[in-house]
Amino acid sequence: MTQIVDVREAVDEPWLTLGDLHFRSRLLVGIEQYEDPTLVRQVLEASGSDVFITTMDPDNSRSSLLLTDFADELPETDYRWIGTTSFARTAQSALKTARALRDLYGINVMKLDVRSAGNRPDNAATIEVAETLRAEGMEILPFILPDVDDARALESLGCAALRIMAAPVASGRGIPEPDRLREVIEHTGLPVIVEGGLGTAGHVTLAMELGAAGVLVNTALVRADKPLLLARAMRYAVQAGLLAYRSGFMAGDLS
Amino acid sequence: MTQIVDVREAVDEPWLTLGDLHFRSRLLVGIEQYEDPTLVRQVLEASGSDVFITTMDPDNSRSSLLLTDFADELPETDYRWIGTTSFARTAQSALKTARALRDLYGINVMKLDVRSAGNRPDNAATIEVAETLRAEGMEILPFILPDVDDARALESLGCAALRIMAAPVASGRGIPEPDRLREVIEHTGLPVIVEGGLGTAGHVTLAMELGAAGVLVNTALVRADKPLLLARAMRYAVQAGLLAYRSGFMAGDLS
Question: Which of A59, A81, B68, B125 has its CA 20 to 30 A from that of B143?
């Protein structure tokens, strides 16, 4: 019976606390590709996610979605609003976006992306921006290619969590190299979010079974015939993988 | 919103109906390796399974577990009692077990296994026994290696469902050849249960994403440090994979 209590704790406990913000859902959903605030709310509700990730166009200080439309759909009492620099292709652009989100909307938790050619994380540029934003007191969740040294560098900067790429963003290819992800997870004290390439529920379950603290999905939902069904599937997949990891399972092979 | 109704239907609808027996849980749990009826009940409750799979030693007409002990723990109002011939190594032994379970306990739904050297299904012997038992009016869920012709032969005998091996029983190796499983699933009108080698939740999610009607797990739970946690994980994994399959996801690669 103690084990069933473990289930409840595992599913309900916050995986990250920043000041008075408690992050409980281990499923984060990127919503830059939606145009309709009501659909965003439906997708988030089906996914069970309690985070709303917003951004703005870094080059004209305009939100890609009208944030005023979201204030009614996604109140800050129910959703933790965090920012993202996912459109940034340079360190300068990422800095500009992060500061604009802070100055215009008071958002101080940033999903930090600096992506280079091929839409892949630029680890060096990301560390550089993280250092600057940390010095300004911002909470950072940086996105990098799996690399233990870079993970440790970001940890020493006091980042809140790490986001590690499983496969190219929007590829739906899953986790081709699970051992590389596991190595980073085992060599950092920070919570690790697995992101990029998670195309379906099985990919998400595997990520959690490797010891991830959570996952971020995005394009998979946009492309599904029924996004709300897949959002719900992803929610179950996170719980399945988390509980399996904590059960001490002994599969023959995790590939 | 229609999609959320789909979620409820997918999770609650029976995947198999035999007379007045409705099978709702898509997770079946083998329990031959347990010695304590209370633990069996706890594992089944954590898994959400509504099926109790019982057997007896084919060589001395004695149950491997005292069935009288289970009548209190697992009443037939809550659990569908079905039999299994999983200890049988020959067609003759399987027949003897199936008939004994029917004659002594009134069980007429049989998880039919005839395993040969290496504990692998013997497709030819299984078909032979299925034909005899079908002629006697028994409902059969046979276990075979993935083979479209053999699947069709069993379908033409009027079997209730097929159980297809993913990897060797108790190996925990998952689904090394997903395309072979998918081929059988797509070429039969029967519900397909994936079984053998499902060592953790990710394997189960993948099986359901391939279009399986359900899965059977066994040794994975016995070997986990916390069997009840893994049983619950497997339950979420089934729901995750089922909903993902129905969402029409478009992952780049399901391996």
Answer: B68
| A100 closest CA partner among A58, A141, A69 | A58
pLDDT of residue A34: 86
Provide the ipTM.
Answer: 0.92
- Domain assignments of chain A as residue spans, ordered by start: 2-247
CA distance B18 to B51: 13
Average pLDDT over residues B15-36: 92
A130: exposed, middle or buried (Cβ count in 10 Å: 0-12, 13-18, 19+): buried
Name chain B contacts of A209, Cβ cutoff 8 Å.
Answer: 200-202
Nearest residue in B to A174, CA atom: B253
CA distances from B199 to A97, A211, A247, A248, B195 (A): 45, 16, 12, 11, 10
Catalytic residue list contains A226: no
From the candidate CATH numbers 3.20.20.70, 1.25.40.10, 1.20.140.10, 2.160.20.80, the one assigned to the domain spanning B2-247: 3.20.20.70
Per-residue pLDDT tens digits for A30-39: 988 888 888 9
Asked if the Cβ–Cβ distance from B205 to A205 is below 8 Å, we say yes
